[in-house]
Specification:
- This protein is α+β, with helices and mostly antiparallel strands.
- The chain has two domains: 1-59, no CATH class; 61-112, no CATH class.
- The chain contains two helices and ten strands; from the N terminus they run ββββββββαββα.
- It has helices at 63-66, 85-111, and strands spanning 3-5, 7-10, 16-18, 26-27, 34-36, 43-45, 52-54, 57-58, 68-71, 74-77.
- It starts with a strand and ends with a helix.
- The model has no long low-confidence stretch (mean pLDDT 82).
- Bound molecules: zinc ion (ZN).
- Zinc ion binds next to loops.
- The site of zinc ion has 9 residues, from loops.
Length: 112
Amino acid sequence: MSIIKNSIRCNICKDVVESTHVHDYVKCKCGRVAADGGREYLRRSFTLPTDYEEMSIDDSCDDAVSFIRVVGEELVIAGYPGGDRAVILANIRKMIKELAKLKNKKQKRTKK
Ligand SMILES: [Zn+2]
């Protein structure tokens, strides 16, 4: 299994944090929960396990792809067992934008 995105959402302040590298310890706005470990491992700091919603993505689950569908020009989550769909969709859209940005950068570089 490899980690694609190491992220949690605080259920108290609703802040979404992402640990992007192995020693990247990121606290939410209210400081109740934190994510650490980047793409190496998922480490969580919390008071109660219900303090946060897991937002991480890894490559172990085929369903991670099949539950997302394109309907018209929109991304739609079909049959996801839990979590906040609006937050998940927002994250997916953000990732698509990031990918588009990276592709643009690459194209600019190859043009030079
Ligand atoms: Zn918080």
